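Bug: token stream looks shifted between consecutive jobs. Job 1:
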Amino acid sequence: MNTLGIIQARMGSKRFPGKMMEPLAGYPIIEWVLRRCLKSKKLNKWVLATSVEENNEPLIKVASSLGVEVFRGEEDDVLSRFIYLKQLYKPNSIVRVCADNPFIDPIEIDRLILFFQANDFDYAFNHIPKLGNHYTDGLGAEIMTSDALGSLLQKKLNSSDREHVTSYIVNHPSLYKIGTFSAPDNKSYPHIRLDVDQIEDLEKLNQILNLGSHFLPEDIKTEEILEKMNFGFGS
């Protein structure tokens, strides 16, 4: 397997408990993420990595209904979930998706994979506006080599590093080759944040987008979302 996609999610968010099953335009957030990731043309293997806590059962039911495999590991040690799946599937690279990004764009996942395959990086990203890429926050993903992920087992990591998986890599650019690339013009809105960290984020998205429920989450165009968000921000 060349590239494995791992979507991390849990119901026990400290800032917004249960947010993964909260409705956004008629669908739970986790369903938005799964459906949109499944539209990627460069990835045909996705795994939902959640924890063994019983409150994650609703996430497993949604994933199973969409044919997405599930792995259950430690609640706070998210890195251990990734390491297990790396060892199980032995991919060359791993795409990491955080499930608080309901509008993740499968086109941007594919763009990230192609960029990574064409270059010599340990880690690359397009999920946040950083290093001058001007991306909208919440559209893309992260990708790393299997070796880069495995190297974390030899590092002195704190609990935050193990929870956030890639933070050690990002914070040690002298040890890892890190890359990104410019957002296309129609997705270059670094002032817009589409991830859901708190209930206020979800309320704002529901209010501004006002999408209704006459569509499937994977069918709505990112450009339509950004147009509505720009108008909502008064741009």
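Job 2, same session, no restart:
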Amino acid sequence: MRSSAGVAREREAAVTALRGKKAVVTGGSRGIGRAVVQRLARDGAEVVFTYASNAGAAGKVEQAVKAAGGTAHAVRADLTEPGAAARLMETAAERLGVLDVLVNNAALEFVPTPLAELDDEVFDRVMAGNARTVFVTLRYAARHMPDGGRVVNISTINTVRSAPGIAPYAASKGAIEQLTLVAAQELGPRGITVNTVSPGATDTDLLRATNPAEALAVAASITPLRRLGEPSDVADVVAFLAGPGGRWVTGQNIRASGGLA
């Protein structure tokens, strides 16, 4: 049995795992992104995170992090715009000085649409907001991240459990998974790990806004753990990969899906 002193040491190690580290999280004002920002800050990192338009939600994240003793800075960025991701990384460098942890979580909201009804503009916009952003930020990491850094890219279980109407979204996330594999090979010699985390159905405002209650019940019922995921479930996996415990894990796609494959 562990002593109370041993438990206390473990807790202290958990909350200081990223002390002094500087992190960037794209899409950090809601849902999984918000949970990731709060968890990395709780572990000691100073975090720059992006939001698309909801300044109020971003401000609440900053306040919550500050109340918990951490530091987070919101940056507005429309990552579908050419040059936006590069400008974000420049802004983060000015604020943080160095990039130790990069979490690519931002994803363009997309209304499921059959292939026959999709136009080029929608496809290009989704690919730009999702895949191009990861490409640009990974390129920045390859050029500027110090040895021993961490990159985590958020994908989706939908790259292996597809569904009608999500072609641009699934394609963009599949591209992210391939970028992860290549970057892990290229950056590995410098001790930089690059991994993908693929959530299953996760209980966020967006999920509930875009799915009827019956669909959510079905999603929970077919998941081995018999529930929807919580944003913190995914954030904990990201924090592991971003911290010292993840030093020997790279080039992997971890399905944080409650066992759904």
